[in-house]
């Protein structure tokens, strides 16, 4: 089935994403080579060219093991990633009985477009955010926060759900989960390399009693450390690049599904700065509609800014930008609903139900009035 959104850009994005994933996998072998170079250099006093050749031979030997380890990591993520995410965020699967409004919005959206409905999950937090997860149709799920369900109107919630459905249909969710897993492998191997270096202490050198290094082992260690740092930084940049690019396309896909750019803009403006999930790690926040933890520079931002996303929707979808939206604090809506049309309802007067003091004097009823004590021929009982 064709993906939703801007089709030409989506195809181009998929090709670039596959290339980036291949690059991530390549970084695993870079780390293996760096580890082999360190292993050959520690305690050695041989020339640099010999150490490089020995490390390359070790890489050829270790490559199948590294490939199998990465594949095993991916298999674990394939089977258990949703459980791990739910355990971290507290997400729980809900049915129509649990939240008929939210469930019906997602179901109607899927039925209208012939989309297989993913599982619907809810996180009990006042934050405003949502994300999609899964690697196949049996695993796909959309998770929203309680704050988002309570503080967005139906059209805005529908736009957010359409945004996440677009991520699923465009393959973004599968791509990002795999990227996060491979980046985790890189971080794991990188940490192992640094532990090996720092635990070796002064035992790096060998062959000289005065502690000075001979040959090219010192240069080899510096090269290996530089490769580790470079691989780690590139894995972060690649993950962030995957996250940023896909958000624009998911916004466009949401508008195409709902035919309502203003709803998507309104949802983004309400979510802006209110999406922090304290229990979630950085990998989960990368999957969200908005990530307020974005870095200090554009290169290290996992998401494009809300302003840039809204500007794109205004320019290409004809939406209207209301600007930043101020929302009342959670619970303020309930207080306002309890107030009357002229402000807060005062407490009951004394003498009324719930009061204790006597009521003010009431005028005497006219003869013949209901509740009066005089009948048509004089006072009652006279």
* Strand arrangement across the biggest beta sheet: 1-2-4-3
What proportion strand? Answer: 5-15%
Work out the helicity level: 55-70%
pLDDT below 50 for ≥5 consecutive residues: which ranges?
202-214, 336-345, 350-357, 368-382
Envelope shape = elongated
The description of the largest β-sheet is: 4 strands, mixed
Instruction: Label the structural class.
Output: mainly alpha
Number of helices: 11
Kindly report the average pLDDT value: 78
Radius of gyration in whole Å, from Cα?
32 Å
Q: What is the count of β-strands?
A: 6
Element order: H for helix, E for strand = HHEHEEEHHHHHHHHEE
Q: Span between N and C termini?
A: 93 Å
Question: In words, what does this structure look like?
Answer:
The chain has 382 residues and is mainly α. 57% of the residues lie in helices and 5% in strands. It has 11 helices and 6 strands. Strands 1-2-4-3 form a 4-stranded mixed sheet, with helices on both faces. Helix 1 (7-41) runs antiparallel to helix 7 and helix 5 packs across helix 8 (261-271). The longest helix is centred in the N-terminal third of the chain and has 42 residues, at 48-89. It starts with 6 loop residues before the first helix and ends with a strand.
């Amino acid at each position: 089935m064709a993906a939703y959104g801007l089709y030409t850009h989506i195809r181009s994005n998929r090709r670039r994403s596959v290339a980036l994933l291949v690059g991530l996998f390549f970084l695993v072998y870079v780390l293996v080579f760096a580890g082999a170079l360190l292993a050959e250099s520690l305690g050695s006093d041989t020339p640099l060219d010999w150490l490089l050749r020995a490390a390359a031979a070790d890489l050829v030997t270790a490559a199948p093991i590294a490939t199998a380890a990465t594949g095993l990591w991916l298999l674990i993520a394939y089977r258990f990633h949703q459980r791990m995410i739910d355990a971290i965020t507290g997400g729980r699967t809900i049915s129509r009985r649990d939240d008929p409004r939210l469930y019906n919005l997602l179901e109607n959206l899927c039925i209208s477009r012939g989309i297989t409905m993913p599982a619907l999950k809810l996180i009990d937090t006042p934050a405003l955010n949502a994300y999609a997860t899964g690697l196949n149709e049996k695993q796909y799920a959309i998770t929203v926060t309680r704050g988002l369900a309570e503080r967005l109107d139906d059209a805005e919630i529908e736009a957010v759900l359409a945004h996440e459905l677009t991520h699923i249909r465009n393959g973004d969710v599968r791509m990002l989960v795999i990227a996060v897993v491979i980046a985790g492998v890189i971080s794991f191997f990188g940490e192992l390399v640094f532990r090996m270096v720092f635990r070796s202490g002064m035992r790096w050198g060998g062959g000289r009693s005065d502690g000075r290094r001979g040959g090219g082992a010192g240069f080899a260690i510096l090269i290996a450390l530089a490769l580790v740092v470079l691989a780690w930084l590139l894995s972060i940049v690649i993950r962030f690049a995957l996250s940023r690019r896909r958000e624009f396309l998911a916004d466009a896909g949401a508008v195409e599904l709902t035919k309502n750019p203003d709803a998507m803009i309104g949802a983004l403006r309400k979510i802006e700065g209110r999406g922090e999930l304290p229990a979630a790690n950085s990998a989960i926040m990368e999957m969200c509609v908005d990530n307020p933890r974005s870095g200090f520079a554009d290169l290290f931002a996992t998401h494009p800014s809300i302003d840039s996303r809204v500007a794109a929707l205004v320019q290409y979808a004809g939406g209207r930008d209301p600007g930043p939206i101020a929302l009342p604090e959670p619970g303020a809506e309930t207080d306002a609903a309890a107030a009357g049309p002229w402000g807060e309802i005062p407490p009951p007067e004394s003498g009324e139900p719930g009061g204790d003091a006597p009521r003010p004097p009431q005028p005497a009823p006219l003869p013949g009035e209901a509740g009066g004590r005089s009948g048509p021929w004089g006072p009652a009982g006279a």
